[in-house]
Amino acid sequence: SQLAVMVISDRISAFDCIWHGENGLNGVPCKGAALNAISNHWFKLFREKGLADSHILDIPHPLVWIVQKARPVMIEAISRQYITGSMWRSYSKGEREFCGLQIPDGLNNNQKLPELLITPSTKGILKGIPGVPEVDDVNISRLDIENNFKAFNFSSPDDIAKYEKLLKEGFQVISEALADLDQIFVDTKFEFGYVRDKSGKEKLIYMDEVGTPDSSRIWDGPSFRDSGKVIEKSKEGFRQLLL
């Protein structure tokens, strides 16, 4: 497979915009190195626990990855353990269907859900998929994926269940590790892709980033447990500031 060099910066983005600070500040100092280290920690743990490989082959510098180029699955695979954020905003307006899932009545903001939910959205602008608007990051259902698996870059329909399994297993690994630190893993985004192994066989892997404060919501456990107060350990506080 082809290789690529990924260079991660300290820039901070939200709502598809790159944000700059006062006095020429371009991002958050040391943010890139921190996110690199966090992602690599989880990717390594996934591999050690026998889940799947990632695209990372080497880390020659805190801001640099040498990666195996992958054919991406065109889905941002979001998993949610609590109802909050955009899901709560839709729910509070009376919507009870989210990404094709039926959500029960009587839930409160920031409440733990009965089970982990997978609420996928499109990665990029996908054209020609019936019922899926041609805009970036639009919510989709599992049925959308099943009926158009090739358009989402899956090699076979069976791989849909495989990506869901890897998502749930990865979420559990991170959630349990953070729980040991008395932190709550609220929701996160996974991305997947295909590479070929040494024998030339195609395999599904984790890619992009995983479990970082940029791609996840993480809450302080003691504060939430004792008073119900949400103290964000993620970029969500910055996003809320912009709303």
Walkthrough of the structure:
- With about 240 residues, this protein is α+β, with helices and mostly antiparallel strands.
- Helix content is about 30%, strand content about 30%.
- It is built from 6 helices and 14 strands.
- It starts with a strand and ends with a helix.
- The model has no long low-confidence stretch (mean pLDDT about 95).
Structure summarized in a few sentences:
It contains six helices and 14 strands. With 243 residues, the chain is α+β, with helices and mostly antiparallel strands. The strands form four sheets. Strands 6, 7, 10, 11, 12, 13 and 14 form a seven-stranded antiparallel β-sheet that branches. A three-stranded antiparallel β-sheet has the order 1-5-4, covered by helices on one side.
Mean pLDDT across all residues, rounded? Answer: 95
Largest sheet: 7 strands, antiparallel
Tell me the overall shape. globular
Residues in helix, %: 25-40%
Q: Looking at the chains present, what oligomeric state does this protein adopt?
A: single chain
Number of strand segments: 14
Instruction: Report the radius of gyration as a whole number of Å.
Output: 18 Å
Q: Give the CA-CA distance, first to last residue.
A: 42 Å
Query: Structural class, judged by helices and strands?
Result: alpha+beta
Low-pLDDT segments: none
Put simply, the count of helices is 6
Q: Please trace the helix and strand order, writing H or E for each element.
A: EEEHEEEEHEEEEHHEEEHH
Strand content: 25-35%
